[in-house]
Amino acid sequence: xxxxxxxxxxxxxxxxxxxxxxxxxxxxxxxxxxxxxxxxxxxxxxxxxxxxxxxxxxxxxxxxxxxxxxxxxxxxxxxxxxxxxxxxxxxxxxxxxxxxxxxxxxxxxxxxxxxxxxxxxxxxxxxxxxxxxxxxxxxxxxxxxxxxxxxxxxxxxxxxxxxxxxxxxxxxxxxxxxxxxxxxxxxxxxxxxxxxxxxxxxxxxxxxxxxxxxxxxxxxxxxxxxxxxxxxxxxxxxxxxxxxxxxxxxxxxxxxxxxxxxxxxxxxxxxxxxxxxxxxxxxxxxxxxxxxxxx
Length: 295
Description:
It contains 6 helices and 12 strands. By secondary structure, the protein is an alpha+beta fold. The strands form 2 sheets. Strands 3, 4, 6, 7, 10, 11 and 12 form a 7-stranded mixed β-sheet that branches. It has a 5-stranded antiparallel β-sheet with strand order 2-1-5-9-8. α1 (about 5-15) runs antiparallel to α6 (about 260-295). It is globular and about 65 Å long. Mean pLDDT is about 80; it is low at about 1-15 and about 235-260. Pfam families: Egh16-like. Keywords: Signal.
């Protein structure tokens, strides 16, 4: 039986049904603007299919799973959401600015839900170094609706997502020529999808004697696991309601241990996304190889 290159590729792509949510805009309480690394403003926002509507959504997977992830566009080229160049591109699109926040201030983002699995609740975290290596939980002040990342009524909809900046937060990163940079990472339970938003600390930030640099004192993976587990535990696996966004019981590890089912679902979802992305990549490689053989 003979299959054309086109049919092989379409068969693989036809099985790819993934949820996506992209942070397409962000502003700080002191001004400035930006978006998540990897966002392409030319991406249409009125559909749900993989191409072209999901191409610039970040999924936290691959080599940068515990940093700033990758998009379909970067993954096709065996790349990731690289911090330095990614921040530079955000600044170019935002007229050489980043969202500027104050200690105790707020970051307001626009989360575009592409389809049903790009919903909330989201958990957010911040890295004072701006490098995506040391994550500390942030309080959610306005949450994206959804249950365990699902909301079929939210397709192609923009939702506000806001986080509180800690009163003693410091931003010490020097990225793409900008000083006082932090990185904010937000993700939902599916994928996980979301994005990394670079921000800049403004005003006269007051340094603390011992600023919190890591949630656990371990690796970025340890930090993220602790934040997500505690968020699930704090609200029965729903990621939280109200002003604290499910992070009120951040260090309640006994509760987190009880949420094994929620964590299992999250891990299974991540594995499905990895398999789909691998299938897409292999299909494209097969198509290129077939074209080369016909040349």
